[in-house]
Amino acid sequence: MSMTAMDLVANAKQKISEISVSDTKNSLSTHFILDVREPAEFEAGHLPNAVNIPRGVLEFKINNHPTFAGQENADIIVYCLSGGRSALATETLQKLGYTKTISMAGGYTAWTEAG
Hints:
Blueprint: H1 5-15, E1 18-19, H2 21-27, E2 32-35, H3 39-44, E3 51-52, H4 58-61, E4 76-79, H5 84-95, E5 101-104, H6 107-114
Parallel strand pairs: 1-5, 2-3, 2-4, 4-5
Helix pairs in contact: 1-5
């Protein structure tokens, strides 16, 4: 039986933790912020101090990125546009040994709607 993209997201969300937009706002100074959207999405607007590593290249770039190299135990908040890609990316990061990753529920859309 094959799975849909939404099945994969739902499965990932069962294995990860999510953080609300308001809790994210309170954590900006204590957590790394990882934007897994595409570069054009990032350029159009992003969270303060966010680092952009698109989900499609995350596994290949994260360990060599100056911000994240050797930071497997760092607090990292991951976000995308709506929460799907960040859920998948958070699950992937956990598999790569990043033990304190969390996905921002609702993504950048929820962030902008919250003002």
